[in-house]
């Protein structure tokens, strides 16, 4: 049965990450002022480029470059922005509970992103850092600098203070060690520390780094990073994290690696709020229908890392990526306009995967783009093109000029 509104329908969008902000900026282009009440809720007054957070954490890019004021990219005549934290969704009452109030909706878009997945490993939550948002990235940067400062001021040096462990050699772990490989020599110079004393150890449970990625590109990345002083422990699982470092296991061998910094980058799950609100989820991700609707709730749409879709080509979930979150936002904005205007059929969401580029610092990378393998400066160049394109889609050419990456050499 068609829904007939006697007032402007209310669209509430939760989260200003890639999925939420792309839904918002495209919706504001499509709908007139009098067609809908659009409210965007986010815990910060800025959107951040999650895909750049490893650079902020390593200290190779200032965090202000990664954040974009929401009021600079939304049309305030069409979108009402509420800075608040979502604590619960009550779909039966079409209500969202915030820390400082509540909102009702006719259509809800959930784009609350990801959380670190610690798989219940002892001590990780308490003792390891994770790249979760701007604040956590800043904390990692400050912590590493503090450890270097402390070490340089020590009479009897404890070398483990300047050992940094990265758990997981997926794309996040590798992009982070790539940045650290460039940052460490700068820190050594700043704090008068011998580079040979610093260890950056990346621990990966699978038999290779970047499991599942093209083996030739993986070999390139590994030897490039090893030449820059990164140590890899492959086929080695982190079993525990303590205040002193980590306990790892390889085959039957258990070993302790002492470290002043442990960063867990070994997996993500959907935002816990979604699951806690009663939506059926797998590792926090809700299996949505082809129109991005949550099962059993025709007016609740989920985008980005809190959603899950199966790739029919391999029967496995699509990986949670910004690429897909942004495409979902564009598709959903069109479909919401159709629903508001009751003007036709909804369009199914089909990811259009253009490839993957993994940076190894700002000056090198590996990738497969439109089916073609690239490495070195060409891949690093492509990575910046991708980063700038995301800015263009979010905020237009002015945003690219303001925040874009143009250090191509
Ligand atoms: P997010 O971008 O995580 O945004 C969620 C938003 O919701 C944030 O603004 C947050 O502040 C807000 N929020 C969260 N909780 C609340 C709450 N309770 N109340 C109010 N607001 C809330 N993918 C790629 O495709 N390419 C890459 O190169 C790439 N690089 C990456 C590098 C790193 C270091 C990381 C960590 C991930 C990378 N990814 C990349 C994955 C990509 O960043 C995610 O898939 C993407 O950010 C998911 O977008 P999202 O819209 O679901 O949520
Ligand atoms: P991931 O799940 O892709 O990788 C996590 C890695 O940690 C895996 O290799 C896994 O084997 C390893 N691991 C798990 N438990 C471990 C343990 N106990 N000890 C040691 N290693 C362990 O997670 P991610 O790298 O955070 O990526 C999350 C998502 O973000 C993915 O979809 C990824 O594609 C995307 N991403 C993309 C890019 C890019 O396109 N350049 C960059 C970063 C992230």
Automatic annotation (TrEMBL):
The keyword Flavoprotein applies. It comes from Bacillus suaedaesalsae. Residues 10-329 form the FAD/NAD(P)-binding domain. This is NAD(P)/FAD-dependent oxidoreductase. The lineage of its organism: Bacteria, Bacillati, Bacillota, Bacilli, Bacillales. The keyword Disulfide bond does not apply. SUPFAM superfamilies: FAD/NAD(P)-binding domain. InterPro entries: FAD/NAD-bd_sf (IPR036188), FAD/NAD-binding_dom (IPR023753), NADH-Q_oxidoreductase (IPR051169). It comes from the Bacteria. Belongs to the NADH dehydrogenase family. Transmembrane segments: none annotated. Keywords: FAD, Flavoprotein, Oxidoreductase. Its cofactor is FAD. PANTHER family: 64 KDA MITOCHONDRIAL NADH DEHYDROGENASE (EUROFUNG), APOPTOSIS-INDUCING FACTOR 1. Pfam families: Pyr_redox_2 (PF07992).
């Amino acid at each position: 049965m068609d829904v007939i509104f006697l007032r402007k329908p209310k669209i509430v969008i939760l989260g200003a990450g890639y999925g939420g902000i792309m839904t918002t900026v495209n919706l504001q282009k499509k709908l007139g002022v009098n067609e809908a009440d659009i409210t965007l809720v986010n815990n910060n007054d800025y959107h951040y480029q999650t895909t750049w957070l490893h650079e902020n954490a390593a200290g190779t890019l200032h965090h202000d470059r990664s954040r974009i004021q929401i009021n600079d990219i939304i049309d305030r005549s069409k979108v009402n922005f509420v800075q608040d934290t979502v604590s619960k969704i009550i779909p039966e009452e079409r209500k969202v509970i915030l820390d400082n109030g509540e909102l009702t909706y006719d259509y809800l878009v959930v784009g609350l992103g990801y959380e670190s997945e610690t798989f219940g490993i002892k001590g990780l939550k308490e003792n390891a850092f994770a790249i979760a948002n701007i604040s956590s990235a800043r904390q990692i940067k400050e912590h590493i600098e503090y450890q270097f400062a402390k070490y340089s001021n020590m009479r009897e040096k404890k070398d483990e203070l300047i050992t940094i462990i990265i758990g997981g050699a997926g794309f996040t772990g590798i992009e982070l060690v790539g940045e650290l490989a460039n940052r460490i020599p700068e820190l050594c110079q700043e704090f008068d520390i011998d580079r040979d004393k610093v260890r950056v150890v990346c621990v990966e449970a699978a038999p290779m780094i970047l499991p599942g990625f093209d083996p030739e590109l993986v070999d390139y990345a590994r030897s490039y990073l090893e030449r820059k002083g990164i140590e890899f422990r492959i086929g080695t699982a982190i079993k525990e994290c303590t205040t002193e470092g980590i306990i790892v296991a390889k085959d039957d061998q258990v070993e302790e690696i002492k470290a002043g910094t442990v960063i867990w980058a070994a997996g993500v799950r959907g935002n816990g709020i979604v699951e806690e609100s009663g939506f059926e989820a797998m590792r926090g991700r809700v299996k949505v229908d082809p129109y991005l609707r949550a099962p059993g709730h025709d007016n609740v749409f989920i985008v980005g890392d809190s959603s899950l879709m199966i790739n029919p080509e391999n029967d496995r979930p699509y990986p949670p990526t910004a690429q897909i979150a942004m495409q979902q936002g564009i598709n959903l904005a069109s479909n919401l306009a159709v629903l508001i205007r009751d003007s036709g059929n909804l369009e199914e969401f089909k990811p259009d995967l253009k490839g993957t580029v993994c940076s190894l610092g700002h000056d090198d990378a590996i990738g497969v783009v439109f089916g073609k393998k690239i490495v070195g400066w060409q891949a690093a160049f492509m990575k910046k093109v991708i980063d700038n394109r995301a800015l263009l889609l979010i905020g237009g050419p002015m945003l690219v000029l303001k925040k874009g990456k143009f250090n191509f050499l």
